[in-house]
Amino acid sequence: MSLMYLLGAVWVCVMIQTSPVVPVETHCIKVNGCQCIMKDGSGVINLDGVGDRGGFLRPVPGVPDDEVSLAFSPCLPLVEPWELAGTECSDVAACLIVRHAGSISRYENYGLHEGSVFHYNDTTRTLSVSYFTTAHVDHPMTVVHYRCTANHSVPLVLPRDPRTARPLQVWVGSPCACANACGVGDLGLGTIFLIVLIICATAYFLLGSCALRAIRTSSGVQIAPEESVWCIMCYLLTERQVASRGHQRLNSGRHQTL
Question: Where does 28-184 sit in CATH, by number?
Answer without folding.
Answer: 2.70.130.10
